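Appendix B, Record 12. Input sequence as logged:
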Amino acid sequence: MHTNLRRNYSARFIYHFTDKRNLPEIKKAGGLLPRRSLATIPYIPGGNEWSITADDRSGLDQHVHCCFLPHHPMEYLARIQGRIDPVWLTISLDVLNNPSVRYTPGVSNQAGMAQYNNREAIENLDLLPLYRYLDWTVPENNERRGNAEKYEILLPFQIPLSQIGGI
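Logged structural output:
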């Protein structure tokens, strides 16, 4: 996927949002950790109680959640509900070389959400509206973009500081 994003879409990063108050703990931990690893680390969660419970129940708390663009519906909700003071971190595309990375065609903790590996993601995710201009006066293009903005990237490992920008 990483080569596909660079070559076909000129993508430079994937993104993760967090609360600004989490930055000192991220630095102290040496990078971004899956939420399950944060049991003894103080942090401000981006998800609401329902989202956290759904992640716990489905094992998604074992992943660092990222997205393709520096905006996502989950960040928007957390921000307008006043749960976080957001900062967007840039993540090196190199993390996508790990074969355990998964992609979802929507908000990952939604019931029945599919998960794709790198090859399946290239075949199944509509990345074009994320990286190319489409005529936004065409309703179908707006719908494609809205759907694609919900995609998530699930990284079941720590992301080291050396692969994170914006800290």
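The radius of gyration is 15 Å.
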